Amino acid sequence: MVNTALKLDPENNEMIALKASFARDLPASATQRSTASTTSIETIQTRLRTLERTGNLSEQKKLLENLVALYPSETVSLLRLSMVCEKLGMIDDAHKYAEKYLSSEPDSLPGRLQLARCLYQLGDHTRAMNLIQEIEPDYPDKLEIMAEKGQVLARSGNFDEARKIWKQVLTSDPGHVATLFNYAQLEMESGKHKEAQEYFEKAIRKEPFNHKYRYFAGINLIQSGLKDQAHGLWAASRSSLNQEDPYAARILRALGEDKAQTTQAVSLVSPPPSLGTPSLESRVPDYVPTNVIEEVSTDADYERALEYARGGFYNEAIAAFKQVLTKSPENFNALMNLGKVYTATGNNEMACANYLKSLKLDPRNVFALRALANGYSEIGMHGLASDITQQVRLSNPDQLEGFPKYAQNTPGNNPRAYEPLSKAMIAEGLFTEALAVVNTGLAQQSDLTVLHLLQGDVYKNQGQYDAALQSYKTALNRDVQSPTPYIRMGDLFIASGQQTSAADEYHKALKAGFIDPDSMFEIADRFRQIGRDIDAQRVLGQLKGMNLNQAQLLKLDQRLGTNLAPKSEENN
């Protein structure tokens, strides 16, 4: 039709343009496709928009890499590639692409802000904040700048300042999705799970395919005791999950659907070779799940633990591996596999503690070193992760594959990581290591009351009662309204056989400004422990007149033999 029109009117500009368009975009024949039509910028951009709507980050990354290779002059693609890599958790790559983009566009405000994002995630908080402050006067989106400043402050341990800034952002724009998520995380880590869930839900409504938002919303539900709801939230996104997205992969692991329906959720190991020992590839039976190496074992408990883990029954697997370790505390495989199960459940702190215990048995084992380094990196203890990577770089540089890499020699740690990691170490009896973590945290943020309490807990477990008492007193000086330091000092006095002094501390805790029902239950139980039943009854009597939730009413019924808690329909 076009050719006919041109025969009638060779000067028809509209037909000439249409013919040129066809020549550019249509294949030469039905069987011969035009490569240009599938790799044109317009085609790639259209595909990218579709992938962005569905949250498919891994495919976005591949497409952007192709775009950068095919059209080097499209430098803005480097910035987009950096942002996608950041969302995938590939911060080193994100940093590389951001710097490459800025080498050609040094004055780009979005590029410089993206570089700042990479820097604070690599632990360089000072440089990140300086960069944000440099571009702040000229940056058009003031709320975005404020949101990122809040991120740097939170990662530096200035949680109150971060909260203030994020509240200002949400006051101006209640739908600012990044801040909704950041604020939700802050509330979750403060133990305010109901408030956190409200913000998580708002963020997910804005970005339903954001797997990171959905993953942490589920973790918040689990911490609230709502495991079934968490799994329901995760399962609702199953159709869009893929293993290459790190948070989608975590959701799949939590649902027991790692890699494929027929593939198991946890990669368990037989005894890994020591550092420097060549890895031997052997034929694995077809029925063995991918990445699981069978081993001959005569321990029925260990075999049961393996089967639980392979089946995705993580709570049962954890209990079974602990039972094995009770009998054989130096079972390297059990420690490593227990760490892997903890990793699969998202409890990276306990995973790190068990990997560390594995290394005490085999200090140069590359598998344990890699697992511990990546565990540290996952929770934000970048300094510790970098130290391990550097150790392997010096001793066995050919074994560096899979270790976290950092752009700077001494990356900073996330201040929020010190507390949960040290608690996990204390729980696993790693007191020396826990003390080192706590002291490092105090050097970075000396006003964190909880770290002084944990320091006291370590000293107490080591039998250093005077040092423990001093740490608890320091915590009290920093938070005079909290009952916790008094309770800790009371427990310390019990450990040292000073029951009268212990009772005095518990009475002081009851008079603290921020006393709460759960702390009162703890105090009542401790009074009974030291034979002060009258004091215990008095505390329980006070609780009886308070506005308690269902769980607290059940606790009161158990202690008083009453029936105050309302019965569920199942029990009627």
**Rg calculated over all Cα atoms:** 29 Å
Mean of all residue-level pLDDT scores:
82
What is the CATH topology of the domain at 346-571? Serine Threonine Protein Phosphatase 5, Tetratricopeptide repeat
Quantity of strands, as a count: 0
Report what the structure shows.
The structure is a single chain. This protein is mainly α. Among the domains are: 2-38, no CATH class; 156-255, Alpha Horseshoe (Serine Threonine Protein Phosphatase 5, Tetratricopeptide repeat), CATH 1.25.40; 346-571, Serine Threonine Protein Phosphatase 5, Tetratricopeptide repeat (Alpha Horseshoe). 67% of the residues lie in helices and 0% in strands. The chain is built from 31 helices and no strands. The chain has helices spanning 2-8, 13-25, 35-39, 41-54, 57-70, 76-87, 91-104, 109-121, 125-135, 142-155, 159-172, 177-189, 193-206, 211-223, 227-235, 246-254, 300-310, 314-327, 332-345, 348-361, 366-379, 382-395, 418-427, 431-444, 449-461, 465-478, 484-495, 499-510, 517-529, 533-544, 550-560. The longest helix is centred in the first third of the chain and has 14 residues, at 41-54. The radius of gyration is 29 Å and the shape is globular. It starts with a helix and ends in a 12-residue tail after the last helix. The relative contact order is 0.04.
Write the layout of secondary structure elements.
Blueprint: H1 2-8, H2 13-25, H3 35-39, H4 41-54, H5 57-70, H6 76-87, H7 91-104, H8 109-121, H9 125-135, H10 142-155, H11 159-172, H12 177-189, H13 193-206, H14 211-223, H15 227-235, H16 246-254, H17 300-310, H18 314-327, H19 332-345, H20 348-361, H21 366-379, H22 382-395, H23 418-427, H24 431-444, H25 449-461, H26 465-478, H27 484-495, H28 499-510, H29 517-529, H30 533-544, H31 550-560
